[in-house]
Design a protein that fits this description.
The chain is an alpha/beta fold and 461 residues long. 42% of the residues lie in helices and 16% in strands. The protein has 16 helices and twelve strands. The strands form two sheets. The protein has a seven-stranded mixed beta sheet with strand order 9-8-7-6-10-11-12, with helices on both faces. The N terminus is likely disordered. Bound molecules: nicotinamide-adenine-dinucleotide. The site of nicotinamide-adenine-dinucleotide has 25 residues, from strand 7.
Length: 461
C-alpha cells in the first residue's frame, strides 16, 4: 500500500480475497511514503497483495463467523496508533545516513501492546501493521493480557557494523521512549534483531527514565533480567504445536519427516527440538538455500557447523544442496515455514506435499495458498497458535521483571507446555464444532475475545 493509493485502495489491496467489504472492512489508511519498495525476499508474484490485506481477509472471515457488527469490525481492523520515525545514524566512515523506523500499536483493549522489532530491508508500514494485528490475535488466543504491537527499521543489518547497529538501535529506542514502556508497549526481538538489540533498547529506555526498567523489553539477556527459556521459547512452542497436531491425528512423533524453511532464531532450534524428539529432519534452508538428506540430517552437528561458517548450509557436507522452492515441495510429514511472510502463496501452494504445515513464521501462508492447502486436506497449524511460545515466555519474563522474582527453566518450560497444549485444544475444539480450519477457529477465538474486551470497556467518551 503506498501513500498515493492508500486512502481509497481497499478494493485494490483485497482483490481476489474473501470479500472484506461485506464484513465492513477496508484497509486502514497509511501516511507512509516510500513503503512499497522492492520486497526481494517475499516471492508471491501471482498474488498482488500485501501482508496487511491477508490479515484483513483473515479478520473478515472470523468476523463473519462471529457475526460481529460493522462498527466493531472497523474498530478491530484499524490500528490504534502508528508511528513513523527517522533514524539518523553516523556510519563508521563519518557519513550520516537517515533510516526509517516504525511502531504500530494495533489494539490495546486487553493490555499494553506487545510485539517484536524487525530489522530487514523490506520493512514497511503495511508489513508492520499486519504483524501488529497478528500479535493482537496471538496474545488473545493464548490468554496473555496484552494487545498487539510491532516495530521495525528498514535496513539490512548485515550491511552495518556492531557499533553502527548499536547507534541505530539507541536512536530508534530514544524515539520510542514516549510511547513504549512496561505499561504501554513492550518490544521483543524479531527478524534481524536479538538479545543484544534488546539490551541496547532497555539501556537507552532506562537511561531516559533515570532508573533500570527491566519490564521495558523482553527477550533480553539473562544478565539483565531475561527469562530462562526465552531464547528457544518460540521454537519450543512450535514443537508443542507439532506434537499436539500429531497426537490429534494419532501419529507417533518418532520417525516423522520434517523440513524447515528459515534457519534463524525460530527455525534452527525448532529443527533441533524436533530432531531430539525423534523426527527425521530431512531439509533446512536459509535465505541462500538449503541442505537436504533423505536419511535425516544430524541437526546438532549442522547447528554447530552453521554457527561457524560464511555460506554454510549450501556447503554442508552432510547433505545435498536444495533450493527454498524445492524444500517447500518435499514429501514430508511436517513442513515448518520459519522465515518470512508469503513463503507459501498461490503460485506454489499446490506443490506442498506435507501433511502438516506448522507456521513458525508470522504470515507465511497467503489466503489464496490457505484455500489450496485446505482443499488438499493439509492441516495448517496457524502462526498465531504455532509460534505463540515466544510471546508466552515474553509474558513470563515481563511478569518476573515486574515482580523482581525469577523462575527456573523447568518452571518456564512446564508453564509453556501447559499453555501451548491448552491453546491447541481450544482451537481444535472450535474447529471441530464449527467445521472450520484451525486458522479460522484460532481467529474466531482471538477476535471474539478482543471484541468482548472492546464491548466491556465501551467507547470513550
Ligand atoms: P531470524 O532473523 O533469526 O531468522 C530468519 C531466517 O529466515 C534466517 O535463517 C534467514 O536466512 C531466513 N530467510 C530470510 N528470508 C528467507 C527466504 N526468502 N527464504 C528462506 N529463508 C529466508 O528471524 P526469526 O526470529 O527466526 O523469525 C523468523 C520468523 O518467525 C518471522 O516470521 C518472525 O516474525 C517469526 N517469529 C519470531 C519470533 C521470535 O521470538 N524471534 C516469535 C514469533 C514469530
Amino acid at each position: 500500500m503506498s501513500a498515493t493509493q492508500a486512502p481509497d485502495a481497499g478494493a485494490e489491496v483485497t482483490a481476489g480475497l474473501p470479500d472484506p467489504d461485506e464484513a465492513g472492512i477496508s484497509a486502514p489508511r497509511t501516511t507512509e511514503g516510500p513503503g512499497e519498495r522492492d520486497r526481494p525476499l517475499k516471492a508471491a508474484p501471482a498474488e498482488p497483495s500485501t501482508p496487511c490485506a491477508w490479515a484483513m481477509a483473515q479478520l473478515s472471515e472470523a468476523a463473519r463467523s462471529l457475526r460481529l457488527d460493522e462498527g466493531t469490525i472497523q474498530l478491530l481492523a484499524t490500528p490504534r496508533r502508528e508511528f513513523t520515525v527517522s533514524v539518523p545514524v553516523r556510519r563508521d566512515d563519518g557519513r550520516i545516513e537517515v533510516l526509517t523506523g516504525f511502531r504500530v500499536q494495533h489494539n490495546l483493549a486487553r493490555g499494553p501492546a506487545k510485539g517484536g522489532i524487525r530489522y530487514h530491508p523490506a520493512v514497511d508500514l503495511d508489513e508492520i501493521r499486519a504483524l501488529a494485528m497478528w500479535m493482537t490475535w496471538k496474545c488473545a488466543l493464548i490468554g496473555v493480557p496484552y494487545g498487539g504491537g510491532k516495530g521495525g527499521i528498514r535496513l539490512d543489518p548485515s550491511a552495518y557494523s556492531g557499533p553502527e547497529l548499536e547507534r541505530i538501535t539507541r536512536r530508534y529506542a530514544s524515539e520510542m521512549v514516549p510511547i513504549t514502556g512496561p505499561e504501554t508497549d513492550i518490544p521483543a526481538p524479531d527478524v534481524g534483531t536479538d538479545e543484544q538489540t534488546m539490551a541496547w533498547f532497555m539501556d537507552t529506555f532506562s537511561t531516559h527514565r533515570g532508573h533500570t526498567v527491566p519490564g521495558s523489553v523482553t527477550g533480553k539477556p539473562l544478565s539483565l533480567g531475561g527469562s530462562h527459556g526465552r531464547r528457544g521459547a518460540t521454537s519450543r512452542g512450535v514443537l508443542h504445536a507439532t506434537l499436539a497436531a500429531l497426537r490429534e491425528a494419532s501419529l507417533d512423533v518418532r520417525g516423522r519427516t520434517v523440513a524447515v524453511q528459515g534457519f534463524g532464531k525460530v527455525g534452527a532450534p525448532a529443527a533441533l527440538y524436533l530432531h531430539r524428539q525423534g523426527c527425521r529432519v530431512v531439509a533446512v534452508s536459509d535465505v541462500q538455500g538449503g541442505t537436504h538428506n533423505a536419511l535425516g540430517l544430524a541437526v546438532d552437528d549442522l547447528v554447530a557447523y552453521y554457527e561457524g561458517g560464511a555460506n554454510p548450509l549450501a556447503g554442508y557436507p552432510g547433505g545435498d544442496h536444495i533450493t527454498n522452492e524445492e524444500l517447500l515441495g518435499l514429501d514430508v510429514d511436517v513442513l515448518v515455514p520459519a522465515a518470512l511472510e508469503g513463503a507459501i502463496h498461490g503460485g506454489n501452494a499446490d506443490a506442498v506435499r506435507a501433511r502438516f504445515v506448522v507456521e513458525g513464521a508470522n504470515g507465511p501462508t497467503t489466503p489464496e495458498a490457505d484455500a489450496v492447502l485446505n482443499g488438499n486436506n493439509t492441516i495448517v497449524v496457524p502462526d498465531i497458535l504455532a509460534n505463540a511460545g515466544g510471546v508466552a515466555v515474553s509474558y513470563f519474563e515481563w511478569v518476573q521483571g515486574l515482580q523482581a522474582y525469577y523462575w527456573t527453566e523447568l518452571q518456564v518450560d512446564n508453564r509453556l507446555r501447559t499453555l501451548m497444549f491448552r491453546a491447541y485444544d481450544e482451537v481444535s475444539a472450535v474447529a471441530a464444532e464449527r467445521r472450520v480450519p484451525l486458522r479460522t477457529a484460532a481467529h474466531m477465538i482471538a477476535v471474539g475475545r478482543v471484541a468482548e474486551a472492546e464491548r466491556a470497556r465501551g467507547l470513550y467518551p
